[in-house]
Amino acid sequence: MKTRDAYQGDKLATIELWERCSLTRPSNDPSQDFDFAYSGPSSAVIVLEIDSAIVGAALVGRGSTYYVGVEPKLQRSGAGRALMTAVEDWLRARGVWKLNLLVRRENGGVVSFYEKLGYSDQGCVALGKRLDDRADRVASH
């Protein structure tokens, strides 16, 4: 297993992985999110590879991470831990001292995984507001 920053050519394989991991939602365009993260100096998509195949990916930027997914058949193999270590290292290298991680309520089963990595409930409520044409679809998700 090795991790690296994604290339633009990794976009389709990364989005397909996120879809297999049930991370995409109608209210978010993963293609737009990938491009946005890829184009900025304070954000990236980190991929995890085995034999040149993308088996894990996470979008990271400004102290937060999103779309953290590992190929379903590789979950519980250490791949998720390797991916999150790469995300944390990426942020540390840029002087970021805290990582914020949002987990959707319907994906609550993954919380114990993050707790084993040292993450804890921060006692916060996450609020958001869409500023694009998808604003009307957020309420249902």
Give the tags:
141 residues; alpha+beta; five-stranded mixed beta sheet
Describe the structure.
With 141 residues, the chain is α+β, with helices and mostly antiparallel strands. It has one domain: Aminopeptidase (3-Layer(aba) Sandwich). Helices cover 29% and strands 21% of the residues. A five-stranded mixed β-sheet has the order 1-2-3-4-5, with helices on both faces. The longest helix is centred in the middle third of the chain and has 15 residues. The chain is globular and about 40 Å long.
Radius of gyration, taken over Cα atoms and rounded to an integer in Å: 15 Å
List SSEs in N-to-C order: EHHEEEHEH
Number of domains: 1
The CATH superfamily name is: Gcn5-related N-acetyltransferase (GNAT)
Strand order of the largest sheet: 1-2-3-4-5
Strand content: 15-25%
Task: Let me know the largest β-sheet.
Answer: 5 strands, mixed
Which secondary-structure class do the elements indicate? Answer: alpha+beta
Per CATH, what is the topology?
Aminopeptidase
Short description:
29% of the residues lie in helices and 21% in strands. The protein contains 4 helices and 5 strands; from the N terminus they run βααβββαβα.
